[in-house]
Amino acid sequence: MRSRRWLAAALLAGCTVNSPPPQYSYGPPPAYQPPTQPEPAYTPPAEPAYTPPPAEPTYEPYAGPSYFDVSIDLDGMSVPSTDVFYSDLAPYGTWYDDRTYGWVFAPSIANYRPYSNGRWKYTDYGWTWISNDQFGWATDHYGRWVWVNRWVWVPDTKWGPAWVQWRVGEGWCGWAPAGYSDDTYVPDEQWLFVPAAQLTASDLRRFYVTANFNVYIRGTQRIHRYNRWKNDVWIAGPDQDWLRRQRVSVRSERLDLRELGRYDRDQAREAEIRVRDHRKEYQDRRRREEQVRRDLEARLRREEEARRREADEHRRRDEERKRREDEQRRIDERNRRLEDEQRRAQDDAQRRRLEEERRKIDEDRRRFEERDKKAREEEKRRRDEQERIRQEAFKKQQQELERRRAEDERRQKEEERKRLDQDKRRQAEEQRRKQEEDRKRAEEDRKRLDEDKRRQADEQRRRQEEDRKRAEEDRKRAEQDKRRFEEDQRRRQDEDRKRLDEDKRRQADEQRRRQEEDRKRAEEDKRRQDEQRRQQDADRKRAEEDRRKQEEQRRRDDEQRRKQEEEQRRKFEEDRKRLDENKRKQADEQRRRQEEDDRKRAQEEQRRRQDEDRKRAEEDRRKQDEQRKRDDEQRKRVEEQRKRDDEQRRRQDEDNRKRQDEQRRREDEQRQRAEDDRRKQDEQRRRDEDRKRDEDRKRDEERRRKDDEERRNKK
Question: In which element (H, E) is residue 168 found?
Answer without folding.
Answer: strand 164-169
